[in-house]
Amino acid sequence: MDWRVISLHRIRDLDLAAPSAAGRPAFLSAASGLVCIHDFIYVVADDELDLGVFRAQTSEPGLLMPIFAGTLPLDAAERKKQKPDFEALVHLPAFGNHTHGALLALGSGSKRTRRMGALVALDSTGAVHGSPHIVDLSPILSPLNEQFVALNIEGAIIVGDEFLLLQRGNRNDAVNAIIRFSLNDIFGILRKGTHAALVPHSTTAIDLGDVGGVPLSFTDAAALPDGGMVFSAVAEDTDNSYDDGPCVGAAVGIIDSKGKLQSVQRLHYPYKIEGIAARVDSDAIHLLLVTDADDPETKASLFSATIRQ
Predict the structure, then answer these.
(1) pTM metric for this prediction
(2) Residue 183 CA, distance from chain mean position
(3) Nearest C-alpha neighbor of 120 from the set 38, 50, 19
(4) pLDDT at residue 297 greater than cutoff 90
(5) So what's the pLDDT on residue 271?
(6) Containing H/E element for 141?
(7) Beta strands in 175-260 (DSSP E)
(8) CB-based contacts of 131: which residues, under 8 Å, 6+ apart?
């Protein structure tokens, strides 16, 4: 097992041109999912109803695009109860009427109100095209509550003809898992809005190790060209999927195309990394990562890092 320590380089904070609502800060504080397409950097935050849109070639503040209607309470506890808890963002290839693909934001599935998703069409440049479409992801997420004591989906990626979800464990239930579905079955739900339960092809438990007795748990992943994935993980000292806890460690790692853990590399500082994107260049994997500090007064940041293969 590769336990090397790697460093992150801070690129920018996720400042916004305007807040999501009066009384909210003009920055994202709880970035939880990341997708990069051409010059666009898309970020979902688990305490917002909006999609953050940033540009790679500028440090100017980003814009928010509403993907759910309504407003959330300003009070932190009430906000947490009512939020859709967007924890994953995935870039879908062309399907149906989405000739240039789409973004899909997913809730964690940990509660009934967190099983909704938002489908956002893209144009040929990777820009948002048209209005978001709300989709009920209960056919995908509800059956998983029977498999896991505390369902907490934190990442979604596409590998070949499969759609993968990442289950995040915690100190009380340290099971991390990769859940595989047929991508065509997912497209069927997104196109038709069917309510029939979807059964995964397979579920594979992954042990990522621990930091001082606190298990490392998935927070996101990005697909690699060889059919494997690079993932982010944190050791958050909490015993359930709802309450936050101190982050005592963080890591990135690689799982190969057969689902075998190849490496886990600790970050030099325990930033709570919750979103990851990857670009492969010869013998290196270049990463972008976003943070969630579990503090509405602290700005989320965009970092870069490189893994040498």
Answers:
(1) 0.95
(2) 18
(3) 50
(4) yes
(5) 95
(6) helix 138-141
(7) 176-182, 202-206, 210-211, 214-215, 217-223, 229-236, 247-255
(8) none
Cross-strand partners of 112: none
**The amino acid at 63:** L
Check whether 72 has a pLDDT greater than 80.
Answer: yes
Neighbours of 22 (CB within 10 A): 7
State the Cα–Cα distance between residues 126 and 145, nearest whole angstrom.
Answer: 34
- Structure token pair of residue 237: 């000292």
Residue type (1 letter), 259: G
Placement of tokens 């938002």 in the chain:
118
Query: What's the rounded Cα separation, in Å, for the pair 64 and 55?
Result: 12
Three-class secondary structure of residue 280 per DSSP: strand
Cβ contacts of residue 146 below 8 Å, gap of 6+?
A: none
CATH of 5-308, one of 3.90.1570, 1.25.10, 1.10.10, 2.115.10: 2.115.10
Q: Which of 133, 202, 219 is nearest to 164 (CA)?
A: 202
Q: What is the mean pLDDT of residues 22-43?
A: 96
DSSP string, 90-111: EEE--BTTBTT-EEEEEE--SS
How far apart CA 226 and CA 229 sit, in angstroms, is 8
Which of 14, 17, 72, 25 has the alpha carbon at shortest distance from 48? Answer: 72
Structure tokens at 155: 């990442």
Q: Round to whole Å and give the CA distance between 177 and 138.
A: 19
Task: Indicate the residue type of 235.
Answer: A
Query: Is the pLDDT assigned to residue 62 strictly greater than 50?
Result: yes
Using alpha carbons, list the distances in angstroms from residue 78 to 47, 72, 181, 207: 11, 8, 34, 34
Give CA–CA dist 126/59, Å, rounded.
19
Q: What is the pLDDT of residue 241?
A: 56
